[in-house]
Amino acid sequence: MHVTFNLKASFIPPFITINAPAETPELQHLATNISQLTNSQLIAGISPRGTRELVPVNQIIRIHTDAKHVVMETKATSYTLTQRIYQLKQLLPSESTSSNNSCPATYFCNFRVAN
Questions:
Q1: Cis (ω within 30 of 0) for the bond into 13?
Q2: Reading across the β-sheet that carries 60-66, which strands appear in turn?
Q3: Distance between CA atoms of 78 and 52, rounded to whole angstroms?
Q4: What is the pLDDT of residues 14-33, one digit of tens each?
Q5: How many CB atoms lie within 10 A of CB 109?
Q6: pLDDT one-digit tens code per residue, 21-76
């Protein structure tokens, strides 16, 4: 794949164009991934090292309470959050906050995106 940058002040907001002979499932998947990465909502959390980090919503596996703390889990690590569960439920996409048989009612699970 060849990547070219065409930079002009008139390109506001930035956009991506994919040039190909046909729209394939692979290109559709690429476009979806690019869209998710560039339009991703971020949640701030405190890492185990004590640093404040921004985590894209699409990397969150689940959010739950633990000993009066709100914990956000990703595949890489867990973060402590300052927001309350009800505040996070308003921030997260509706498909991420629904419970299912694998997700207890006190958790918000995002199995569709993060698995």
A1: yes
A2: 52-56, 42-46, 78-81, 69-74, 60-66, 108-109
A3: 12
A4: 678 888 999 999 999 888 87
A5: 21
A6: 999 999 998 888 787 667 667 888 999 999 999 888 878 888 888 888 899 999 89
